[in-house]
Amino acid sequence: MNSHEFRIGDNEPVVASCEPTPDALSVKVGENTYEFLPLGEGRFKVMIDGRPKVIAAKEYKGVYYVDIDSVLLEVREPSEDGFAAGGDSAHGEKDKIYAPMPGKVVKVLVEIGQEVTEKQPMVIVEAMKMENRVDSKAAGIVKAVNFKAGDQVDTETPIIELEIAEE
Questions:
Q1: Domain segments of the chain: what residues?
Q2: Model confidence over 35-70: pLDDT tens digits?
Q3: Taking the domain 93-164, which CATH number applies?
Q4: How far apart are CA 154 and CA 115, in angstroms?
C-alpha cells in the first residue's frame, strides 16, 4: 500500500493511501474509501457522494494532471518555497491564454481584434478525451491567436495573447 500526505494551503495534512485490488484501485483519503474502476487510457470511474464520476489522469514532464468532471487539478512536488503553482496560475500572465494541460485545440472561439471580457470562453482544448474550456483572465482585445483547431498545444506556449484593457 502506498501512502502519501497532502497539504493544501495552510490546512491540516490529509493522508491518502492506494492499494490495488483485482478489479480496481482502492483509495483511502482521510476516513473515506473510494474504488476506482479502470476504464482504460488513464480514465477511471468512481462513486462520489452516491454519483458516478469519471476521472482522467495523465503525467506530462513530471506533472500529473487530473480531470474530475471537467475540474482540472495539477499535482506536482512542492517547489523549494513550498508552493506548487499550476496551469494558468503558474504563468501569472493575464494577457496570455495557456492550455491547462497538453492536448489538442478543438475550437478557437475568438479572432484577432475581437474585444473580450474577463471569464469569456476563449478556446476549447481536448486532453485525455475530455474537452476543457479555457476562459480569459482579463478584459481586453485579442492581439494574437497562435494555434488553430487541430493543433497540438503544451502548457508553455500561449494559445492566445491579449492587449489588456486599461482599468
A1: 2-75, 93-164
A2: 889 888 888 888 888 888 888 888 777 777 788 777
A3: 2.40.50.100
A4: 25
